[in-house]
Write a structure and sequence with these properties.
The structure holds 2 protein chains of 2 kinds. Chain A is 28% helix and 23% strand. Chain A is of the alpha+beta class. Chain A folds into 3 domains: 194 residues, Aldehyde Oxidoreductase, domain 3 (Alpha-Beta Complex); 321 residues, Aldehyde oxidase/xanthine dehydrogenase, molybdopterin binding domain (Aldehyde Oxidoreductase, domain 4, 2-Layer Sandwich), CATH 3.30.365; 153 residues, Aldehyde Oxidoreductase, domain 4, CATH 3.30.365. In chain A, the strands form 7 sheets. Chain A has a 7-stranded mixed beta sheet. In chain A, helix 5 packs across helix 6, helix 8 packs across helix 9 and helix 14 packs across helix 15. Chain B is α+β, with helices and mostly antiparallel strands. Chain B contains 5 helices and 5 strands. Chain B is globular. Classes of the chains: A alpha+beta, B alpha+beta. At the A-B interface, helix 1 and helix 16 of A face helix 1, helix 2, helix 3, helix 4 and helix 5 of B.
């Protein structure tokens, strides 16, 4: 496949291979760790081995005189560095002081206590062992339910109840709904703590140019501009004296949608030693000190009529926050509340969140951020209800879906669902999997004592995050398009793709709009000195919002190109098409390079028109977008070992219009892998002392190639009316749709034992015990 | 200690500390940053290189242990500006997203076909067990290996 297309061939909607890949497959891409600078130093951070302790003293004398060491800093030195920021503003939120280095107390295992800087990474690591910290170990609490018990250790002594905030939201007539219900089902459902585990750990290179008062910070982040604003504030620097560069980023999944202590700390170190300094997070540190995801204990109640009509939902969320608030920590469970009704019609909803401090690493946005938890909950509850009413799980869903004629649909949680046809992906998935036949096969299998299950989940999600009033930092996105004098096109996006492939999809959009080849377009992102202010990549926003900003910038330029073309052709009747302005009367044309050259040469200008071809647009979306879909899992369980084998995985996703089906499939596959990870294998386990037991890849089971089933993807297409591209977003879909389908399938397999819920991860041990116990009965 | 290694067909000779890891030698002494450090414990495979024709994890081997060896890294796969068929297959099949695992993944995939030119899907998946990818769910990687195998069979 050639990547350069002729100008008449449109690219949007095609399986175009990626523009970013040549550097990645040849090993020539530049990640933070690949950056070398003359005189560069290396930092190693000394971290707390205790989950809760007072720091009596820190002795750095030996470390300071160790070979290669140029400096050691502790919390005393960094007291004047600003707090690690929390972007949330919930009413009554308790926000702990969050210093870049601990001062008198540590709050979780891995808490940074000191930083050792040396000329060589090995020497810095050696010297870090020589820092002596005298701790007075205190009792810790790592479980968010235990943390609320009277007399539990206080994470922050000033707040002995360990409660950071409570949050209540209600819509419709909940009490009435429950009073009128024929049936109410209740269930405690957990969504365990997870480790995001991007393949590239975090890393920072900081370079201070004292004479210019200029700090250059290279960091692996999803939000370079926000990092610049916030870290500059922490360091007391003028924002325009700081440049944040995001080179290649080796995965984020929300874990790099943050501002971390180490980013400011490396800036501080570089300014102190007046030399470039590099810090690369070890994998062990990544497990301990990069945000975790999920951490929910949910209590659900679902009220329904005997015919399966859902009347109302009650939800209490206990959110394990960890010891501090990172950038969005307290916001995440509020997204679960927004999404709690799923695709169902009921507007009678009541939710209460209790945000609880624990002596653990903070939780924050991890792929889906609140929506997987909500979807897991509602999709499990609907299955439990179906079981109670002896209804088919597909039938009960179809009965309760919001109808196609009801969009835009105002939910009981205050959202306005943009567009939907919820039955379509479910029906397609049922067809694709061969549902009727599978149920017959299952009945046969049961007679033979086999454990076969079929699980359905139908999910909705909130994407294109989001309108500015709904976000802490502005919900718009920006794009600049420059057509250079030679007609080549440079796009600068304020989004910050890190694997999603917008260097390709944005080039596809640009090539189609301007009628140029994809190789004529260069997409630049992730450098605050080059790119106009932007928000970044998260919440499936880059294409839906950043792509729309790009689209409007392209419309500006097309209008201007037409004006220059008309002037050059001396005609008002012109059309811009396939990279040419054509005179409708004479058929004469001017090419984009000719027009671009004339616009910069500027010997003659159209009336009221400036030279050059450049447009910058900031696009504020009027609403979120709401993708949806249906996933079906067929599982076979080995009754002797409890081992689950996924026989079929059918995903039908509706993410609106599709720019590049190849990349959309990739997003679904990766999303499903992370959902399957949560459903079957992954769990961050802290023991009662707050030690992270799953602190390495040896103990934390991320999916590997042989563990993954074949994923059968398919789509329905319901364009979003929110943006002119009609796109919705697909980054989190796989993760959100996956875990309830898997658990529903396994519960379905074990239902004849009276099993109606199993908490994730579904380890063979758990399953084997259920089967063994069930057989004893 | 002085070591002499053939890297991507070029002879390299350096004085190195005995404790220097092979991956740090390749990345920081030789300047080939394609091999990545993802876990430091040989569990993720991002640092996979071919050492005397065998895929090894360069993060848990000392540079001095490679003395006299012949090493191929991801940078050595393309010849005369032409991509190796496995690189081409990863590109065509969208076998990568963030790209961090990709160099190791390509080296491991190449080894699978070196040993068995016609692997089944199951054999491909087991051959990739030692390499973690967090982005792709592996399906497009499996497709890439299949495509490379099919291309070589032509």
């Amino acid at each position: 496949m050639a990547s350069t297309m002729t100008q008449t061939e449109t690219l949007v909607g095609k399986r175009v291979r990626r523009c970013e890949d040549p550097r990645l497959i040849t090993g020539t891409a530049t990640y933070v760790e690949d950056i070398q600078m003359p005189g560069m130093h290396y930092a190693v951070i000394v971290r707390s081995p205790h989950a809760a302790a007072l720091i009596r003293s820190i002795n750095v004398k030996q470390a300071k005189v160790a070979p290669g060491v140029v400096a050691v800093f502790t919390g005393k030195d960094t007291e004047r560095v600003g707090q690690v920021p929390c972007g949330a503003s919930l009413p009554g939120l308790r926000v702990p002081h969050h210093h870049v280095l601990a001062t008198d107390r540590v709050y979780f295992v891995g808490h940074p206590v000191a930083v050792v800087v040396a000329t060589d990474r090995y020497l810095a690591r050696d010297a870090s062992d020589l820092v002596e910290v005298d701790y007075d170990v205190l009792p810790a609490v790592a479980d968010p339910e235990k943390a609320q018990v009277q007399g539990a250790p206080a994470v922050h002594p000033e707040w002995p109840d360990n409660i950071a905030f409570t949050f209540h939201q209600e819509g419709g007539e909940v009490d009435k709904a429950f009073a009128e219900a024929d049936v109410v089902v209740k269930q405690r459902i957990t969504s365990q703590r997870l480790i995001p585990m991007a393949m590239e750990t975090r890393g920072v290179v900081a370079e201070w140019r004292g004479a210019d008062r200029q700090l250059n910070l290279y960091t692996s982040t999803q939000i370079p501009h926000l990092v610049r604003t916030l870290v500059a504030q922490m360091l007391g620097l003028e924002e325009n004296r700081m440049r944040v560069v995001t080179p290649e980023v080796g995965g984020g999944f929300g874990s790099k949608l943050n501002v971390y202590a180490e980013e400011a700390l490396m800036g501080f170190v570089a300014m102190k030693i007046n030399k470039p300094v590099k810090w690369i997070e070890s994998r062990r540190e990544n497990f301990l000190c990069t945000i975790h995801g999920r951490g929910h204990v949910d209590y659900y109640e679902l009220a329904a009529k005997r015919d399966g009509t859902i009347l109302g939902i009650k939800l209490k969320i206990i959110q394990d926050l960890g010891a501090y608030h990172q950038l969005l920590t307290p916001v995440i469970p509020t997204l679960s509340v927004l999404m709690m009704p799923g695709l169902y019609r009921t507007r009678n909803v009541r939710a209460d969140i209790v945000g609880v401090f624990t002596n653990c690493m903070p939780t924050d946005a991890y792929r889906g951020a609140g929506r997987p938890e909500a979807t897991h909950g509602i999709e499990r509850m609907v299955d439990i209800l179906a079981g109670e009413l002896k209804m088919d799980p597909a039938e009960i869903r179809l009965k309760n879906f919001i109808g196609n004629d009801e969009f835009p649909y105002q939910t009981g949680t205050g959202l306005l669902y943009d567009s939907g046809n919820y039955a379509a992906p479910l029906k397609k998935a049922l067809d694709n999997v061969g549902y009727v036949k599978l149920r017959q096969e299952q009945a046969e299998a049961r007679k033979q004592g086999k454990w076969m299950g079929i699980g359905i989940s139908t999910y909705g999600e909130i994407c294109a995050i989001g309108p500015s009033p709904a976000t802490p930092a502005g919900g718009w996105e920006s794009a600049t398009v420059k057509i250079e004098p030679t007609g080549k096109v440079t796009v600068m996006t304020g989004a910050c793709p890190h694997g999603q492939g917008e260097e390709t999809t944005f080039a596809q959009i640009t090539a189609d709009e301007l009628g140029v080849g994809i190789d004529d377009v260069l997409v630049i992102r992730g450098d605050t000195a080059i790119v106009q202010y932007g928000i970044g990549t998260f919440g499936s926003r880059a294409t839906a919002i950043g792509g729309t900003a790009l689209y409007y910038a392209l419309q500006d330029l097309k209008a201007k190109i037409k004006k220059f073309g008309a002037m050059l052709l001396e005609s008002d009747d012109v059309t811009f098409s396939s990279g040419q302005v054509i005179c409708d009367r004479t058929g004469k044309s001017k090419s984009l390079p000719e027009i671009a050259a004339a616009s910069y040469r500027a010997l003659k200008l159209p009336a009221n028109t400036e030279p050059g071809l450049l447009s910058t647009r900031f696009w504020e979306p009027p609403n979120f977008t709401f993708p949806f879909g249906a996933h079906i899992v067929v599982s076979d369980i080995d009754g002797e070992t409890g081992q689950i084998k996924i026989r079929r995985y059918v995903a039908v996703d509706d993410c609106g219009n599709i720019i590049n089906p190849l990349l959309v499939d990739g997003q679904v596959h990766g999303g499903v892998a992370q959902g399957l990870g949560q459903a079957l294998w992954e769990q961050a386990v802290y023991d009662e002392h707050g030690q992270l037991v799953t602190g390495e890849l040896m103990d934390y089971a991320v999916p590997r190639a042989h563990m993954m089933p074949w994923i059968e993807t398919d789509h329905t297409t319901t364009p979003s009316p929110v943006n002119p591209l009609g796109v919705k977003g697909v980054g989190e879909a796989g993760t959100i749709g996956c875990s309830p389908a898997v658990v529903n399938s396994v519960v379905d397999a074990l239902s004849r034992l009276g099993v109606r819920h199993i908490d994730m991860p579904l380890t063979p041990e758990k399953i084997w015990k259920l089967i063994a116990r069930g057989k004893l009965k | 200690m002085n070591i002499t290694v053939n890297i991507n067909g070029k002879r390299c000779s350096h004085d190195v500390e005995p404790r220097l890891l092979l991956v740090h030698y390749l990345r920081e002494v030789v300047g080939l940053t394609g091999s990545h450090v993802g876990c430091e414990t040989s569990l993720c495979g991002a640092c996979t290189v071919a050492l005397n024709g065998k895929a090894v994890k360069s993060c848990t081997m000392f540079a001095v242990q490679a003395d006299g060896a012949s090493i191929v890294t991801v940078e050595g796969l393309a010849t005369d500006g032409k991509l190796h068929p496995m690189q081409e297959a990863f590109w065509n099949e969208h076998g990568l997203q963030c790209g961090f695992c990709t160099p190791g993944m390509i080296m491991a995939s190449k080894q699978i076909l070196d040993r068995n030119p016609k692997p089944t899907e199951e054999e491909i998946r087991h051959g990739l067990e030692g390499n973690v990818c967090r982005c792709t769910g592996y399906q497009h990687i499996v497709n890439a290996v299949k495509a490379a195998a099919a291309g070589a069979a032509k």
